[in-house]
Amino acid sequence: NKNGFDIVIANPPYVSTKGVDEKDKKIFQQIFGFADDLYCHFYFKGMQLLQENGILAFISSKTFWTIQTKKNLRELILKNKLLQLFDTANPFDTPIVETCVILVQKNFNSPDNYTFNYLDGTKSIISPTVQIGSIEYYKNAPNQVFFPINDYNLKIYKQYGKKIKELLNQWWDKISTSKNIEKYKIELEEYRKSLKPGDITLLGLITEGGQGLATGNNGKYIGVLEGTKWAENVRKQRPEKLLLAAKFCWDKGIKNKNDASNFLNELNEQEIRRLFDELKEKYGRDIFGQGWLYRIVNYEEIADVESLTDNEKFNGIYGKKTFVPYDKGDKEGNRWYAPTPYYIDWSIENVKFLKENSGKKSIGMPVVRNPQFYFREGFCWKDIGMDTLKVKIKEKTVNDVKSMSLYLLPKFVNLTRYVISVLNSNLFSHYQYNFINNTVSIQINDIRQLPVIIPSSKQLNFFESLFNKAVSIQKDKFSDKISKQQADELLKVIQKELDNFVENMYIG
Q1: Residue 109 neighbours by CB under 8 Å, 6+ apart
Q2: What sign does the CA torsion over 21, 26, 30, 36 have?
Q3: What percent of the chain is modeled with pLDDT above 70?
Q4: Do the Cβ atoms of 239 and 276 come closer than 8 Å?
């Protein structure tokens, strides 16, 4: 048919933007007006190839269901007519991206409201459960996300869909950049003043935050605390790393790991630091592997953060106690609380170098970002590898670039423990994954879109009490007063209490 095909069937390649050649990206930009994961372009091309009322039948990644960067694809589908959406999850044994099968009719004159078939194959791809969905659910959802159609999600949608969509439409652009926040500062302040217990808002409207420090040379500035497993690993690795400086070892008669160990055992910690610093200067920043830490910090070198002056926080510390806690994020995904094993040498000399060289185009140069958030209490989360929110208090530290952190605005700082608590509930993990981002990477802007109810003083007291119990258990675990198993059992009880309270408070 010269007007197009009756049907286009495809299983587009799962190639992310990182795997697309720069030349191809420019071509995609010219043809489609955007450059994205390859499968997205196949959708747009497939719709172009169809005649009116033709059918597009695709098996593809389902990342387009939720994430912000794929909103243009959701809009394309909603402009036409969605016939069927089949959540096939991951039907294979190998860990690949979750998939879906979709049927879309090319029909720009489809009615405003119609129904489609939603098939849930997450438990059985052979015998999926079938629900009838209204296209209005997706058209009116925040960011027009395609959430799984089931009774629980419809309850959440009916309670929060319209309100959160209104908040995003009204405020998201005004808080999307620092420039806009400043531009709409008065309007935002008026809105925040109006918030009272029981009101629903976006977490992004009562928090602030941003990326932290990239030192450009972690080994020179950051160490691990003595007595921790990280410190033991550093001691074990030092002889092997020393052997990588081959000419130095040759000159010193160091022939093997045993020789290297004996050589290092003759040096104290200060001498070892100077040695590795000098070897990096001589042989290159990455001689031992990029980012390898060789400093072991003892308690006598650690400053008391609570007693630091504003000048010391901003310009560095004079004296012998110059190390302060450094937050590099939490790969292990601890909830509630976890002590950081990392400390940065926040001496006047180091801070001066970091600030004066920030952003310089040279290997090993630092980038100092958002120092106004250093030494502030907030919250952070494990940002990759799961569909469950794992949030803990971020203590008063200097922040690494990999630390995903947010801070309650001064007016709402008393809500910090409440926010950490509700984010650790099953309801919030469910909402984040189904209504904001169904990939394994949880970004700051995902967290900022979460709905939050301003609590009453009674509710606030409940959450603070719960938070304090959970943190106490975690502290006992990390100080070896109780075993991990004992801690897990105690935290399960708290989790159940938390989930029940949050369910009642948020969806009744």
Answers
A1: none
A2: positive
A3: 98
A4: no
